[in-house]
Structure of PAZ domain-containing protein:
Amino acid sequence: PSDTFEFIARTRDAEGFQPVNVAFVGIREEQDRLMYGEETGGVYISKTVAGSSSYDIVRWPSHAGSSRDRAQLLPSVDVHWRDARPVWPRTLRGRSLSSQRNLLQNCMNQQKLHGGCPLPEVKKNMERRRGRRKGKTDVDPATEIVTGLSIGPPVSSKGIFFCRRPGFGQVGSRCIVKANHFLAELTNKDLIQYDVTITPEVSSRSMNRAIMSELVRLYREIELGMKLPAYDGRKSLYTAGYLPFNSREFVVKLVEEDGRIGIAREKEYRVAIKFVARADIYHLQQLISGRQTDAPQEALQVLDIVLRELSNQRYISVGRSFYSPDIRKPQWLGDGLQSWCGFYQSIRPTQMGLSLNIDMSSMAFIEPLPVMEFAAQILGKDVLSKPLSDAECIKIKKALRGVKVEVTHRENVRRKYRISGLTSRPTRELIFPVDEQMNMKSVVEYFKEMYGFAIQHSHLPCLQVGNQKKVNYLPMEACKIVEGQRYTKRLNDKQITSLLKVTCQRPREQEKDILQTVIQNEYEQDPYAHEFGINISSKLTSVEARILPAPWLKYHDTGKEKQCLPHVGQWNMMNKKVINGCTVNHWACINFSRRVQEITAFGFCQELAQMCQISGMVIFP
């Protein structure tokens, strides 16, 4: 197939600059990349141009073994194609072209780094047996004919291809603008990926992070070799350098609280960590230096995870953004909601190198109020004096379902529960069995005898927490909403307007908030960024820009003014006629004022239609 070739590459040695012939088998990809590598040394053509004989070649010395840390870029390269004929591995014979491509691509995907499975063996004299070669090719003794394929520095399977910039602008007046980007420097450290399996399986990312945080606390000094890993909350763990093991299982015990019934229990988890691959930053460095145009998304994703690790511990994570009431004072939205200020961050490749993009955002959160006060805001009335109607109970039930609350009637215990519903009867009428003999006791008596808590507003319903098999009752006056719960339901028009007012900022205010966020995040003190060799600038990036002149506006030739030049983004429509005016077949004018007479409104309609026709519109009176 056209994907597989045998080449002779003539290079200049890095030490003595003497010509060395290297014969190897490589894969030609769609983007004209030829890759080769082997455990005993090899050559990797990292960048080619179709029809050109100039290439960048990286050589792995034979003493490097399977490690590619000591790869060398040969300073001068001259590649010659000689007898470039197809090589047919045995496993490819008789297959269709699409099947051959799939086999090669699957092997490349598995060979994400140097630990994958090799491609099928290719015998040296296969071509001669098929009658395609008359004799052996002379090869320098310092080199060898390769009989198998493996992958060198990987091409990102999720790479984004950027078109090269065709040039730079010349029109307009030059100026300097500030961008919400902060330049990042990256040292040449190995990024190692490990697979994480937690048993029993946990669906919550926050719980996964709590388990891994406890694991690092317990085992970092000895078992983890003092490494400080970054975790994505699911299946991937990243370290700067290799851990002392390839695969190992750890035991972690956590005291966690059941949100449904509020009981704290110690639970044991088994965490298996297994080596996956070495995340390659070669292509990222090539992108930054301008030697390639596709962005390696795997390496960028690792850097993103590293820079998000500390923020995940400090703030509430929602998507790619983080929120906290400490970033800026929360703003009231009404109906028990408030807006929290947050920030979005993402590592991006730019023409100036890597940069951390930070932008401000806002989101609605449930206000951490006592439940009775929250209910009063939902209903817009005082709930302390009169019992609630059925409609009011349904409204409160919908607003509170799924919300986490903590109890306040116990001094040193702040257990948390998730609300499942609301009782249909008031608290003073609720009774429940206290033992297996079905002895009944009222909720009011139970709280008085058990906790010394006297329920003052027994006319209100109780909160239901727990599952259907075992329902617990909590008085509304003994509960408070837990802070940091995102509101996921639809906002009303008034709340949307309030949120937009908070979000819309002038540039000076936004710049101040972004810089304050960078200072608060303390990237220079971030232990994870320091571990992985990432340095973030604390200054906004300055970018050259141009203020373009306003364009001339073209109007209809039959108008009094055929052209117009806007001034500061504004212009007057008087004496101008649009080129393609719309047609209005049916329209109406509604008079809501008692003081405006019908003849006055009719005159207004005639003048409106006349003005539209002068401006180029077709409107029927």
